[in-house]
Amino acid sequence: MQTPMTKKLWAIGGGKGGVGKSVFTLGLAISLARLGKKLILVDADLGGANLHTLMGVRYPPHTLEDFLLKRMSRLEDIIIDTQIEGIGLICGADDILGAANPTYAQKLRILHQIEELPADLVLLDLGAGTSYNVLDFFNYSPGKICMLTSQATSLQNVYGFIKNSLYRQITREFAKDSLVLDLLMQTDVKNHGQGVESINDILLHLKEANSESFQHLLRLLKDFSIYLVVNMVKEEKDFQAGLIIEKVCASFLSLKTRVLGRLSYDPAVEGAVNQMMPFPLRQEKSQAARDLEKIAHLLLENCSLPQDSGMLSEAAGGSWSRFWRRTPA
Ligand SMILES: Nc1ncnc2c1ncn2[C@@H]1O[C@H](COP(=O)(O)OP(=O)(O)OP(=O)(O)O)[C@@H](O)[C@H]1O
Ligand SMILES: [Mg+2]
Hints:
By secondary structure, this protein is an alpha/beta fold. It has helices spanning 21-34, 51-54, 64-68, 96-100, 104-115, 132-140, 152-173, 178-186, 199-209, 211-223, 236-253, 267-274, 287-301, 319-326; strands spanning 9-13, 39-44, 80-81, 87-90, 121-126, 143-148, 226-233, 257-264. It has a single domain (9-173, 225-326), classed as 3-Layer(aba) Sandwich (Rossmann fold), CATH 3.40.50. The structure holds adenosine-5'-triphosphate (ATP) and magnesium ion. Adenosine-5'-triphosphate (ATP) binds at residues 17-23, 45, 48, 127-128, 231-232, 263, 265-266, 269-270, 273, 288.
């Protein structure tokens, strides 16, 4: 029988910079380590690595650059010990894009080795934006978490991030299926008016035209499950941001996303960042620490999304849905 913990590798993304991806990755790791898990954190922000700073490491002895430039051949050898029991860290490097922008093959080399790392769980802290580097790391990870805040720009970016990663996955998996690629292109905002505006429309079309592709796309959508975490929640209405994204993804992408939890806005986080003190170390009673603990429990209990994947849903009405229709992503 499969254990509930089926996903070892988790990627934390979200498109927008500064929404708390790194703070959350570290906080989640500390909370999971307290529950007895062994973790390795990988700073996969290849443009602006700073996870080590949040962990109080000023000068990392090794970084991913050593591995990418083949100065070290085993990823395991660049793990550095941290001040937190049960957590190892693989540092990114600030200038890695200039030094060694990894090819797809190199990324696969990293990811294969990441899967083999000696840990219960591996968390990948992704950079901002929707570059192929970020999307490929995200798509490869069986566990996917997107961070967002209630700011309109974050909603826009997280939807764009989810859409771009899904489109990249479909494009990869259907690289030789010109019908699917053509339909996918038609959903582009600029081409609206041809009757194919959403993934749901593609499914309806394929159901008639090609049942094999239809089944394949259904499977892909079911497997592409994403958890959402809303950060910097100050009041209850901020949390609605996650529910809006759930609805929009179901309507336009036929994708089941689920809000895993929230992280309250907490000045203790900023204080910890400024002191280079890993949060929530020594801050167990703060609200954000309790939120993280809740999410850690949920993650362990509930590693896969439910089987029903919200396919073939009616496009939702309401003002937010009009907003998204206008939003090219
Ligand atoms: N829950 C929170 N409460 C208060 N402040 C927070 C919270 N979460 C994050 N912050 C603040 O936001 C800042 C940015 O967070 P973080 O570096 O994790 O963002 P990021 O999404 O990783 O950004 P980037 O994409 O640039 O890597 C932190 O330095 C911290 O000050
Ligand atoms: Mg970050």
